[in-house]
Amino acid sequence: MPNTQQYLTEYDGISKTIQMYIDGSKQGKSELMRPAFHADASFFGYAGGQLAVGPAFLFDWIDKNGPAPKIEPRIVSVDILDSIAMVRLEVGGWSGKLAGSDVRMSDLFTLLKTPSGWRIIQKAFHWHA
Q1: Three-class SS of residue 51?
Q2: Distance in angstroms (rounded) separating the CA atoms of residues 72 and 53
């Protein structure tokens, strides 16, 4: 178990990575969130009853959806285990061309600590209809 200072340092690094995802979501620009993802990351969930697979789907969706400036993201939990971490993010207030209005999503992220910082290696989501 890391000491408090180590934990806070890792937590801050993880939060910075998740913030890149949030910033890209708010602005509708996948290029803002791409650096948060490892090149070999995976992505799964159902969007409107259709299975969505792969980060390319996510990035394309973000760009086509456009800005969602009023989303309300909340980090619900962060579990850090040395070089890996799990983050649960709840995001309310989604809007945009594809999302519609006032949609809520639950995201589970797995992150890996790399030499260049924490990177998302897996994202699974649930779209609350």
Answers
A1: strand
A2: 24
pLDDT at 50: 87
pLDDT of residue 122: 98
For residue 115, pLDDT over 80 is answered with yes
The structure tokens listed for 106 are 């639950």
76 Cβ contact list (under 8 Å, min separation 6): 88, 89, 90
Q: Are 66 and 106 in contact (CB under 8 A)?
A: no
Task: Name the token pair of 73.
Answer: 């993201």
What is 4-128's CATH topology?
Nuclear Transport Factor 2; Chain: A, (3.10.450)
Residue type, 10: E
